[in-house]
Write a structure and sequence with these properties.
19% strand; globular; single chain; 275 residues; Rossmann fold; alpha/beta
Length: 275
């Protein structure tokens, strides 16, 4: 699998963003495409404000824009320190209701896949289909250590160690070698707010277990995982199959955790599932 992709954060990302107010809190989001169907991209754990990459995201998924109206929401501006994965889930449900979004196609990656599963379990009447990449329903002690280390590095402002560990675990060694200097050079761009949001989000994943929560899912669910994922063990898919009779899955040979960012063939998978 080729991994000569480089990520950059460019442009005036605050321009052309939309806002929705939920419970006196602001959520910024991007919307592109003019299709009749609604596709919600729910990203995984991220350090930089995800909307800083809105131009890259829009370009990456432009091939879906004629068929779908595509949404991506940032975490709310003020997040309590005791926020849970269920709070993140409820935020999305409130947003969907406020914007009158229904018959949703949810595309969730990593942590976003976990949230997507919970959304479908609580409000299956809103969801048409789940497409999940590099996700899980259960995080064991060994996997939790990764998130504990991330939280500790972030709390102690050890940004070099934080960025290095994230790239090492999430991407391939080729991507790491090609991009580590770029990411380290961007560490001064990380705001205190972004770092605090990251800590709160990462803590929700430590020893997470939603296996009993997803028994109520009754929508078509397609999960794709890489067999070289160093964040989540792909055997978790077997666990999910016990609870979701609508689940289909595919394993990407040689795929890392974030294979969906690197593997050019993943676009074809999305096309087959969405178009």
């Amino acid at each position: 699998m080729k991994t000569n992709v480089k990520i950059d954060i460019v442009g005036d990302y605050m321009s052309n963003l939309l806002n929705v107010i939920i419970d006196d809190n602001t959520f910024r989001y991007m919307k592109f495409g003019n299709g009749k169907k609604n596709l919600i991209i729910i990203p995984g754990l991220y350090l930089f404000d995800i909307l800083k990459s809105k131009d890259i995201i829009e370009k990456q998924y432009s091939y879906l824009s004629s068929e779908y109206s595509i949404y991506l929401f940032e975490r709310k501006v003020n997040i309590p320190s005791d926020y849970t994965i269920y709070d993140f889930t409820n935020d999305y449900i409130k947003i969907f209701n406020k914007l009158n979004l229904k018959d949703l196609y949810l595309f969730g990656t990593s942590m976003g896949g976990i949230i997507s599963l919970l959304i479908a379990s609580k409000t299956s009447f809103l969801v048409k289909k789940l497409i999940l990449a590099g996700t899980t329903s259960y995080i064991n002690d060994d996997e939790s250590k990764f998130f504990i280390d991330l939280v500790n590095y972030a709390k102690n402002n050890k940004l070099d160690e934080l960025l290095s560990l994230m790239l090492e675990k999430i991407y391939t060694i080729e991507f790491y070698n090609a991009n580590i200097e770029l990411f380290l050079n961007m560490k001064d761009q990380i705001s205190n707010e972004e770092l605090n949001h990251f800590i709160i989000a990462a803590k929700t994943l430590i020893n997470l277990d939603i296996r009993t929560d997803i028994k109520n899912i009754n929508v078509d669910t397609f999960i794709v995982s890489g067999d070289k994922d160093k964040v989540f063990n792909i055997t978790a898919i077997d666990e999910m199959k016990k609870y979701n009779k609508h689940l289909r899955y595919k394993i990407i040979e040689g795929g890392c955790h974030a294979f969906y960012d690197l593997d050019p063939n993943f676009k074809d998978l999305l096309i087959r599932e969405l178009l």
